Amino acid sequence: MKKLLLTALLLPGLAFAEDITIQNLMRAESDTMFRLSMKQNNIGIGELFHEREVASANAPQTVIRPNQDTLYSAAIADLSKPVTVTLPQGDKRFQSVLVISQDHYNFAYASPGSYELTEDEVGTRFAMLLFRTFVDAGDPDDAARAHAVQDGIVVEGGGKGPFEAPDWDLETLAAARKAVNDLAAAVGLESSTSFGRRGEIDPLGHLIGMAGWAGQPARMAEGIVDSVDLNDGETPHVVKVRDVPVDAFWSITVYDADGFLAPNELNRNSYNNTSATPNDDGSFTIHFGACEDGRINCIPITAEWSYTIRLYQPREEILDGSWTFPAIVPAD
User: Fold this and answer.
1) Please, where in the chain does CATH 2.60.120.600 lie?
2) Cis ω on the peptide bond leading into residue 82 (within 30° of 0)?
3) By three-state DSSP, how is residue 27 classified?
4) Could you read off the pLDDT of 146-174 as tens digits, one per residue?
5) How many C-beta atoms surround the C-beta of residue 156 within 10 A?
6) Taking the complete model, does pTM exceed 0.90, yes or no?
7) How far apart are CA 291 and CA 192, in angstroms?
8) CATH assignment of 227-320?
9) What distance in Å separates the CA atoms of residue 296 and residue 303, rounded to the nearest whole number?
């Protein structure tokens, strides 16, 4: 199975745009994402924004293959002065911060505590701080607890900006983005070679990582994107899994032909090891399609559906390939 994460953000071109080359492509993409985050979330440099709901099929989706497992918080930091990020003790739920440079190198922390970030360490003056906080989206009480953990995040220090970057040629950037997405679809995207610190990943993997902008280093999360052969939207499928070797959580999310969450009568597009009902032996059976008979843990499907499996804080047996997630197969 190939690992692939795609981002869909097509923006109109700007006058007097800065030319894009292979040398500055990653910088142009990251600068564009930083600007978009500040605009969409109405935040300035150093200001923290919290999303209080997970992605939904019934709301606009700006990013391909959104997850429904974590709430996002974000800030754009000016590292001309050191920045301190604090993850709270919280209630032991998974929470992380991904530090993304303007050149799309990144690293992450997922333990409570304070972390100092400098321009020398990150490699660029500006960085995105992208926080993920686990939530059981189907449990209103858990959502309230997750919000409280989000509120415990602290970002202190840093410069005050303004954000300084060229006005990139967004028409060329969109064409380059599609080309990289096509390349990633053909050859696959591996977290271990695409996401990490400068010097830890190879140049080609780094380029392909543009197709999964803001993807996490492999030790923080593995993402598996694939489809089944009979993805006609009519043929039901199933997978049974147990003892997934992760220290945080795992999930399966279903998408439509364009990579988005599709509305359905069950209002269900995903399950994780918290929201799914386990079997008596502790394993989990996840069904895809034919949900009208009330089968357990069932996600409706559409024509040309695909899925993403997310493995948060995978253990060594996932990282070295000795354990793989079971295949999703046609139901009997």
Assistant:
1) 227-320
2) no
3) helix
4) 999 999 999 999 999 999 999 999 999 99
5) 12
6) no
7) 36
8) 2.60.120.600
9) 21
